[in-house]
Write a structure and sequence with these properties.
The complex is a heterodimer. Chain A contains 3 helices and 4 strands; from the N terminus they run E-E-H-H-E-E-H. By secondary structure, chain A is an alpha+beta fold. In chain A, about 50% of the residues are buried. Chain B folds into 2 domains: about 270 residues, no CATH class; about 120 residues, Alpha-Beta Plaits (2-Layer Sandwich). The chains are: A alpha+beta, B alpha+beta.
Chain lengths: ~100, ~450
Amino acid sequence: MLLLELAHARSGDKGDTANVGLIALKPEYYPHLVKHVTAARVARHFRGLITGKVERYELPNLHALNFLLHGALDGGGTVSLKTDAQGKVFSTALLRMEIEAPR
Amino acid sequence: MREAGRPVRIAAGQGFWGDWLEAPYRQVTGGPIDYLMMDYLAEVTMSILQKQKSRDPATGYAKDFVPQMARILPLLAERRVKVTANAGGVNPRACAQAVAAAARELGLGGKLRIGVVTGDDLLPRLDGLLARGHDLKNLDTGRPLREIRDRVLAANAYLGAAPVVQALRQGADIVVTGRVTDTGLTLAPMVHAFGWRADDWDRLAAGTVAGHTIECGAQCSGGNCGVNWERIPDLANVGYPIVEAHADGSFEITKHPDTGGRISVAGVTEQLVYEMGDPTTYITPDCVADFTTIRLTQAGKDRVHFTDIKGRPATDKLKVSLAYFYGYKAVGTLVYAWPDAYRKAQAADRVLRRRLQDLRLSFDAIHTEFVGADATHGSLAGRATRFADLPEVQLRVAVRSPEAAPVERFTREIAPLILNGPPSVTGFAGGRPKPEEIVAYWPALIDKGVVEPCVELVDV
């Protein structure tokens, strides 16, 4: 299934790094996201689209994961030539990920 | 005046310079509030303002702020609503004088005190600081500022809530600042109203989280929200957020009655993770807030309750935001229509790149996107076969160079493609693209002791 069916997301920028906050649509989906949406898997998902590494942080109270995608914005801010220079729609790009269905 | 025990209501009136002009007026008139918080400064805004000030020393602040204030000043005075705003840019004194002049014209002479917070502008001190060993190296790349010193256009330390609190204590009704953090503008009224100590880290962190939640205006009250987005009511009439803060550090986010939008745990959570780094370590001049400690509950319709927020001591550094001249860029676009819209746009891109190469133009980067196909999601948007039958595709080519000349020449290579490239092309009514100067951002840290915030008062 698509991650879109289990989570919502918002993304933004810090220099050349895009952050994607991924939030479980229901609290019971959160452990499933923690298990399956790993930094390594997100790095594979964005292969070719980012030049740096992916870091992941957990916010269990908020049923959310925060991903930092380094080298995602062609230099970022005003330097970037991308339409999405501020990483605003990396959120929905992550929600395209195929993921195992929770039991 | 606020009675003891009642929460302090802090309303967000502007999430960035360019935000909805109606929002401040609606926040002041839609119901009771104690403070109106207005955030104007993005990372490169200061360089634009610095450039304006170099041409005219009476400018260098967010000009929109003055008519905004003129519209609501009589209401603010009547309802005892105070304002915190970083609209002062690189010239807070001139901004305060302009607001004072507007107030006098409205007959508010003798009724208003404006606080002015300065001390953030490090541009005049930059060489002295470098000479004394503050190398202001780039937080992201580690490179020393010396490499780009001659191209620096602005340098501002981020000040925290403290000088804003000081202005409020001295009776300011409107506090106009330079580069005060977005969160500090919301935290300051709480510190002032509740008398929180400068080392009450949990409460300072709570006020900081409140500030982060409302600093982007309606982005926490239904705007740009992905959860059941089509069912968010009446965005045309969206209510901007209001913090209802309590002395113990707990608070609610809500909005005025009879406004559109939605305040839900899901929507507020989206805003909490926006532009987030390490959520355990959200560093401000006031404290280090731990976003993983936040507990949220839906406390009623359009009302989310925040509790249990923990903080740690502030660091001994301040962040400095520098802006420097980087080079030039330009973006050219053309629209290709069915049939074979995507393949025609690809072919046009190949022709364009070949011509740029034959002209021996050198660029740092040439970036091509096909808007309507894969501009925003790249290869994740699917295989090219999915784009075979698109009704239209916009070819968007952007170039970047330290020199103006190749960028200027590039802008003349777009229009010819209409008659000498692939067919069924349109969308060029805007004319030749304009080269733009790139002002880039350079984040750094500096010792806190070096920066001295200053508070002045202007009585109207």
